[in-house]
Amino acid sequence: MEKIELGIVGMTCNHCVMTVTNALKAVPGVKAANVSLEKNDAKVTYDAAVASVEALKKAVAEAGYQVV
After folding, report:
1. pTM of the predicted model, to two decimals?
2. Structural domains present in the chain
3. Do the Cβ atoms of 21 and 33 come closer than 8 Å?
4. Is 6 in contact with 38 (CB distance < 8 Å)?
C-alpha cells in the first residue's frame, strides 16, 4: 500500500469534502481517503499496482476540484 497527501483547491464546505472523498474512494485500488476542509488536503491510501497518482488527480478534477 502506498500513501500520498494531495493538496485540494476549491473546497468550501462539508459537502465539498464528501464529494472529494467519494470521488477518491471510487478509484479502483483506493483503500482509504481522508479529506480535510481545514487543511485543504486529502490523505489517500491506495494499491499502486491498481491505482495511480494520475487517476487520483483525475478523479478530483472530475469532481470539480483541483489538486495542487
Report:
1. 0.94
2. 2-67 (3.30.70.100)
3. yes
4. no
